[in-house]
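Budget justification aside, the reviewers requested a transparent look at the raw inputs and outputs of the sequence design task funded under Objective 1. We therefore reproduce one unedited record. The lines immediately below are the structure tokens for a 489-residue chain.
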């Protein structure tokens, strides 16, 4: 399939069921694997957003008026379309994001799982009814919030939009999706498939753009809720701006995930899981292992970890990072740490891939003897780089984890259940694991970090998201005229 056929119209805005050009400037989208231009995408103006909001408002009465069981019918069909188009969707993720085939395919599979979860909403969203005093009944009903927006990052261009679209729409909302301008194509394809599945025009609209359109979303008086996934810097801006405009908001930010490794850890399991966690998706996962704290004598684990890491090769079983700027930033962190005294055991700088010399590749990198004060130990690198710190004291390892501003994920590697519990109880992260490099909770469990990795009350997926995408109406009724008068009457 040629790139042009693959993309179709997915690089345009999608408003009221039609692909349309924006009314503003355009930006080039590059293939991170080759550096070549693959599409132009509109950097929409506020007038584009106004049109999308008007389309969503026009669709809202009929869509929100359907029952939950009626709305999920569209998503049953959508799930089948995702499965039928899995090769094309995988290729698109690879093209715009630079992942290897297996990772892109796994992302599309995850999109199917998210859709299946949304299809189970009728079994999950149970309203409560109780006779609270004689003849008087109280009942809660989940009502959609209204017109909502979802702003998404580059690293999972297919999956992160599907964190929000199925749940929000099944629960009766109409949405504006603003994909990352670096990876706008998968969002357009999702809109196309949802239309084919029978989603009424205007229920989902895609407005492409950058900062300008995000700010317009936060300010728009007719948008009721904003979900955001991206860096902490922007999550703070979006959360502050959306909530100061009296919208509900959940904003997921960046991460610095710590793995605490004890000497009794199963060597093969620890080495393979840690290497996969730090290098998978080229380290561009908010759940990626980024810092490892080894407690005591762990040389044998580091040695095996380096062997496994050396078998991971850019362009083969490791994809590219998103841009030239990202490659330069990641390599700068490595060079700075080395200059500050850390020891680079596996060096991924200056990686190139034959035939793809214009691509943005960084090889997997392991750096030992990093100290907690170094930038590489504190900041989000977002590349295939593992910084190893060492201590002889488990409580010190926990203190290092706790000192991070972030709090997305943390894992401990040990075969001692008591110590694993000790660590899990004390680390300050929303998603914790034992002997697992990427402790992602799967549906129906919710996804969301703590501290500066998430702003807002609910999580973004799973059961917790039901509270974000709905508001509760509380009804009190008395139909029995014989029920006596009491203080509630
Ligand atoms: P980003 O913050 O640069 O961009 C995210 C979105 O914000 C994009 O749609 C972008 O157009 C918009 N944006 C960028 N700058 C803006 C500004 N100044 N004002 C308003 N909007 C702006 O993030 P990214 O580089 O696309 O994605 C990588 C980041 O996302 C990493 O920090 C990663 O950890 C994080 N992430 C977090 C999670 C999570 O669940 N916590 C999941 C995925 C990615």
């Amino acid at each position: 399939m040629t790139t042009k056929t693959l993309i179709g119209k997915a690089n345009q805005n999608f408003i009221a069921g039609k692909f349309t050009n924006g009314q503003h400037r355009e930006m080039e989208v590059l293939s991170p694997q080759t550096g070549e231009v693959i599409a132009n995408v509109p950097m929409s103006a506020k007038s584009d957003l106004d049109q999308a909001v008007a389309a969503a408002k026009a669709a809202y009465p009929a869509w929100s008026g359907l029952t939950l069981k009626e709305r999920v019918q569209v998503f049953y069909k959508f799930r089948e379309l995702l499965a039928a188009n899995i090769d094309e969707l995988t290729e698109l993720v690879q093209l715009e994001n630079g992942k290897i085939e297996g990772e892109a395919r796994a992302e599309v599979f995850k999109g199917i799982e998210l859709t299946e979860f949304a299809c189970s909403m009728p079994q999950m969203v149970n309203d409560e009814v109780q006779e609270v005093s004689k003849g008087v009944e109280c009942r809660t009903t989940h009502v959609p919030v209204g017109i909502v927006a979802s702003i998404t990052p580059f690293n999972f261009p297919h999956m992160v939009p599907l964190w929000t679209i199925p749940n929000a729409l099944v629960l009766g909302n109409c949405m504006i999706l603003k994909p990352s301008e670096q990876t706008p194509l998968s969002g357009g394809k999702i809109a196309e498939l949802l239309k084919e599945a029978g989603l009424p025009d205007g229920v989902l609209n895609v407005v492409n753009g950058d900062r300008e359109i995000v700010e317009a979303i936060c300010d728009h008086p007719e948008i009721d809720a904003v979900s955001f996934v991206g860096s902490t810097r922007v999550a703070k801006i979006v959360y502050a701006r959306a909530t100061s405009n009296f919208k509900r908001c959940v904003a997921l930010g960046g991460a610095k995930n710590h793995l605490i490794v004890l000497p009794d850890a199963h060597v093969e399991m620890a080495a393979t899981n840690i290497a996969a966690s730090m290098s998978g998706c080229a380290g561009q996962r908010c759940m990626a292992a980024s810092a490892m704290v080894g407690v005591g004598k762990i040389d044998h684990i580091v040695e095996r970890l380096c062997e496994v890491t050396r078998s991971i090769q850019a362009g083969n079983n490791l994809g590219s990072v998103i841009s030239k700027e990202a490659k330069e930033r990641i390599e700068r962190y490595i060079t700075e740490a080395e200059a500050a005294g850390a020891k680079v055991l596996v060096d991924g700088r200056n990686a190139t891939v034959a035939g793809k010399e214009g691509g943005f590749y960084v090889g997997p990198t392991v750096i030992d003897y990093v100290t907690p004060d170094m930038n590489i130990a504190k900041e989000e690198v977002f590349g295939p780089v593992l910084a190893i710190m060492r201590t002889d004291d488990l409580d010190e390892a926990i203190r290092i984890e706790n000192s991070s501003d972030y709090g997305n994920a943390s894992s401990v590697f040990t075969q001692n259940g008591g110590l694993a519990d000790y660590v899990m109880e004390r680390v300050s992260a929303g998603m914790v694991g034992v002997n697992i490099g990427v402790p992602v909770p799967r549906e129906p469990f919710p996804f969301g970090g703590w501290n500066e990795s998430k702003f807002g009350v609910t999580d973004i997926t799973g059961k917790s998201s039901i509270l974000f995408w709905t508001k509760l109406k509380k009804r009190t009724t008395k139909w029995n005229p014989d029920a006596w008068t009491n203080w509630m009457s």
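The pocket of nicotinamide-adenine-dinucleotide is lined by residues 151-155, 160, 178, 180-181, 210-211, 214-215, 229-231, 234, 237, 252-255, 286, 380, 382, 408, 449, 453 (CB under 6 Å). Residues 179 and 314 are 27 Å apart (CA to CA). Computational costs for records of this kind are itemized in the attached budget.
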